[in-house]
Amino acid sequence: MPSRTYDFVIAANRLPVDRVVRDDGTEEWQTSPGGLVTAMESVMRGRSAAWVGWAGIPDETPEPFTDDELLLVPVPLSLDEVTSYYEGYSNDSLWPIYHDVIVPATFRRSWAAAYEQVNERFAQQCAEVAAEGATVWVHDYQLQLVPALLRELRPDVRIGWFNHIPFPPVELFGQLPMRREILTGLLGADFLGFQRPADAENFLRACRRLLGARTKGDVVDVPHTDRRVRAASVPISIDAGGLRELAMSEPVQERAREIREQLGNPRTVLLGVDRLDYTKGIRHRLKAFEELLRDGRLSADDVCLVQVASPSRERVEAYRELREQVERTVGSVNGAYSPIGHTTVTYLHRSFPREEMAALYVAADVMLVTPLRDGMNLVAKEYVTCHDGPGALVLSEFTGAAGQLRQAFMTNPHDIGGLKQAIMDAIETPEKERARRMKALRNQVAKNDVQHWAETYLAALRAAPEKPAPTES
Ligand code: ADQ
C-alpha cells in the first residue's frame, strides 16, 4: 500500500463493503448500500480517497484493496476486541449513555482499555495513508479518541469528526469513567459536526463543566494550547434524488400494489421500519396499536401494521430481551385480532433490498417513526421521499429529524394516549391536507439531501474554527 498519498481519508468503524461467498465457493466484496457511501461518492469524486475501517470479519486482516478507485484499508479486530471494543464499550457503555439511558449502561475497565487500543490502531492507519495536508473525516461514537491520537501523529492534516447519534446532556455524559479522555480526544479535531444544535450545545457545556474550557459561541478554546475547535450542527440526510427515482420506477410501483394486495387490500396500511433497537420505541408503538384495536378505534378488518425490524447487535443482552418482548407482543396481537387469512401485524425480522424497502414506503398510508431518542432517523426522510399522494408521517419529537420535518404528526412516544391520538390524526386527517403536508416534507428533504450535507460539512471543516462564508455552506 503506497503510504501518505491520499488527500481524502474517511475513518469509520465499518468499511462500506461486505465479503460474500459465491455459490462456487469463491469470495467477493460487495458494496453495502448505505447513505454514507452515497454521500461520500459525491465528495470523493476527483480526489484520491481512502476509507479506513473494520471489514466485519474478526481475527482476519485482508490486505488493502481498491474498489472503484477508492482504497479500502481494513483495520484488524480480534474476536475479543469485537466483544470488548465494539459490543462492549461502544454498544453497551456509550450507546445507552448517548441515548438517555433507556437501558442502563455497563462499564468495564477492560472494555475501555480495548476502546483505547482500537482507536489507536485506527489513528495509525489514517496517519499511514493520509497525504501531507490531507483531510481526514472521522465518523461516529466508536472513534472518539481518534482525532487527538491522529493529531499527535500527523499535525499537518485537517481533521473532522461527525457524530451520527445524539450527544448527551452533561449530567448523563458525566457518568462515563472516560469522560475527560473522550472530550480531549474529540478536541483533537478542527471541526466537530453534530445532528442537532442541542447536541453541539451539550458538547460545549461538557467541555466547560468537565474540562474547565472556555467557549465563545460555538468555538472551544482547547485548554493548555492555542487551538480553537468549532462544534456545530450539520444534520445528515438521504440520497433523495436516487431514492425518488427508484420509488417512481414501474417495477417498484407495481410491487407496492402487489404488497397491498397481499396484505388483503386494507383501507389503511401502517408501517414501521427500524433496526431492532430499544431506542426506536417499537414497544411503545405496538402498545399504542394494540390499545387502538382493543378500544375499537381501529378495526383489524380495515387496518394492518407492517413492522420491519432488521436484526441488530444480537450478542448484547438488552437486544436479545427486546427481540423476545417484541415477538411475544406481535404474537399476542395477532392471536387476539387477526382475521382468518391475514395477519394484523406482519413482522419481518430481516434485511431487504432497496427496491423492496422503497415499495413498502410507497405502499404505506401511515409511517410510524416513534424513537425514544434517535440522532436523526433516516427512515422518516426515506418515507416522505418515496411516498406520493396523501400519506402521513407520525414522528417522535425525540428524533433529530423532528427539527426539520415540521409538517409531520409530532408525538411524544412515552405518552401512549398522545401517541394513539397522533396515529388517529394521521389516519383521519382529510386527504387534501395530508397530501399538502407530504409535499412540504418531500420538498424539505429534496433540498437538503445527503450530497448537500457532505458539502456543507466539508465547507465547515475547511473554514474551522471560523464559520464558512455563506456561499460556502
Ligand atoms: P440507525 O440507528 O441505523 O443509524 P436510521 O437513521 O433509521 O437508523 O437508518 C437506518 C437505515 O437502515 C435506513 O436507511 C433504513 O432504510 C435501513 N433499514 C432499516 N431496516 C432495514 C431492513 N430490514 N432492510 C434494509 N434496510 C433497512 C444511525 C443513527 C441515526 C442516524 C443514522 C445516520 O442512530 O439516528 O439517522 O445513523 O446518521
TrEMBL record:
An annotated GO BP: trehalose biosynthetic process
InterPro entries documented for this protein: Glyco_trans_20
Pfam families the UniProt entry points to: Glyco_transf_20
Superkingdom as given in the UniProt entry: Bacteria
GO molecular function, one term: alpha,alpha-trehalose-phosphate synthase (UDP-forming) activity
Family in the record: Belongs to the glycosyltransferase 20 family.
Stated name of the protein: Trehalose 6-phosphate synthase
Lineage: Bacteria, Bacillati, Actinomycetota, Actinomycetes, Micrococcales
